[in-house]
Amino acid sequence: MNYTLVMSINKFQHKFVANFKCINLTCGAEYSLKDIIYTCSKCNSLLRVNHNISELKKVSASDWKEVFKERAASFDFPNNSGIWNKREFVLPEIKTENIISAGEGKTHLFNSKRLAKELKLSSLYVKQCGVSHTGSFKDLGMTVLVSQVNQLISEGIKIKAVACASTGDTSAALASYAAIAGIPTIVFLPANKVSKAQLIQPVSNGAKVISVDTDFDGCMKIVQEVSKEAGIYLANSMNSLRIEGQKTISFEISEQLNWQVPDWIIIPGGNLGNVSALGSGYEMLYELGLISKLPRIILAQAENANPLYISYQKEFKDFKPIEAKKTLASAIQIGNPVSVNKAIDTLKKFNGIVEQASEIELSDASARADLHGLYNDPHTGVALATLFKQIEKNNIKEHDSVVIISTANGLKFTEFKTAFHEKKIEGINPKMVNEIISCKADISDVMGVIKSVT
Questions:
Q1: Which of 98, 121, 168, 418 is the most exposed place for a label (fewest CB within 10 A)?
Q2: Dihedral sign, CA of 386, 390, 392, 398?
Q3: Class of residue 65 by CB neighbours under 10 A (exposed 0-12, middle 13-18, buried 19+)
Q4: Measuring CA to CA, which residue among 330, 313, 219, 325 is closest to residue 268?
Q5: pLDDT per residue over 434-443, tens digit each?
Q6: How far is CA 79 from the centre of its chain?
Q7: In whole angstroms, what is the distance from residue 120 CA to residue 441 CA?
Q8: Coil, strand or helix: which one is 188?
Q9: Which residues on adjacent β-strands are paired with residue 405?
Q10: Do 189 and 219 form a contact (C-beta atoms < 8 A)?
Q11: Angle at 112 between CA 432 and CA 330, to 5 degrees
Q12: Cβ neighbour number for residue 218 with a 10 Å cutoff
């Protein structure tokens, strides 16, 4: 690595610090990252991780870009992680020996040229966050949270277990990273609302999985109560350590686009920590001069779980939780998102839009994009349906550049893909169904089938 760059970073390293800070501007209370705290003890607002930006600015934007580029080319720990190769922007005081990583991040940006041309966009990229250790973007946040827990334990702080409520992906990430660290895990899942692939992941990693006869919001209430017990550490996205890892999506997209910013980014949202993370990452890059503008953000919700969309229709004048209905996009089947205030603040800063997608719309959108080489989970289907709808509404215009955030691997949702092509989802576009053709083991029959489909 460039010696001058290393010296430049090392010169200020001891001044790169972070703490928890209340998101309520009229409060602004601050806490140590060593504190086991999830909401402000003074006003009960959520917290964020606050960085010493003035010290980070003492390293030039061009130097930060160069050091990140050099680290990204490394196979050495911890630079082989897309999160920890930017550790000064995440947890600057973490000790290397306490980092719990599975090489997460560094996921590719799929260039969907054919679909972009079809939609008359200048570019359309899909950030494949599901091509990660446990198959979802939750790895990005969980490596940070579990690493900090590991550091706390190393300093003698008593933590018996980490715990989360989940619709699938969070539990998989937590169970895996905690297993790497040797930390016991407790998971609360809503009964019969999680795919088999998602359910078996935490089980395989040794987590104590408790299936609760309720929905995600009910599980969330339980885990918040459980975490009040001394030594049970809450790992849901209301814990702002999770957001610190997830914000690196913004860093990676920027790097992959040569530090150019797209006009639009579309991200699916359930508990709404992801959109605030996305915004946090872009704000940090902008403040440090690594990018010259901010994108507009569109938050995509399933119509059956759309409390933020309803609030957006009223210009965010109020927000009321709802009872989420069953949706194919099960990971965002959440009616009372804990990060709603962070999400609203982010969308206001980024001139954001909230859109919704019906079950038919998300299914058809997923299948339509699959025909261009993708393999989309239903949540990415929600984001894609939102793209199509916003183009129709003329908010996204010809020649705009768009990035879709794909939050999970389509292989986790084989039942969804199978149901579509077996016509088991009512109301879908039959023209996109691709049925398997049965044929006798006879060359004339085979040739007859080939002629019929070509």
A1: 418
A2: negative
A3: middle
A4: 330
A5: 999 999 999 9
A6: 21
A7: 44
A8: strand
A9: 127
A10: yes
A11: 60
A12: 14
Task: For the chain, give every domain's residue range.
Answer: 109-135+243-432
**What is the rounded (10 degree) CA torsion for 224, 228, 233, 239?**
50
pLDDT tens, residue by residue, 39-69: 999 999 999 999 999 999 999 999 999 999 9
The identity of residue 428, as a single letter, is: I
User: Please, are residues 267 and 231 in contact by the beta-carbon 8 Å criterion?
Assistant: no
**Within 108-215, where are the H helices?**
113-119, 138-154, 169-181, 196-204
DSSP state of 189: E
Lowest mean per-residue pLDDT among 16-30, 190-204, 360-374: 190-204
- Going 146 to 152 to 154 to 157, the CA torsion angle's sign is negative
CATH architecture of the domain with residue range 109-135+243-432 = 3-Layer(aba) Sandwich (3.40)
Using the predicted structure, report yes or no on whether residue 266 has a pLDDT greater than 60: yes
Query: What SS3 string covers 247-269?
Result: CHHHHHHHHHCCCCCCCEEEEEC
User: What are the structure tokens assigned to 367, written together?
Assistant: 């299948």
- To 5 degrees, how large is the angle CA 81–CA 248–CA 305? 120
Distance, CA of 50 to CA of 60 (rounded, Å): 20
Q: With CA atoms as reference, report the closest residue to 209 among 240, 157, 168, 246.
A: 168
Identify the three-state secondary structure at position 17.
Answer: coil
Residue 12 identity:
F
CA nearest to 141, candidates 330, 15, 271: 271
Question: How big is the chain, counted in residues?
Answer: 454
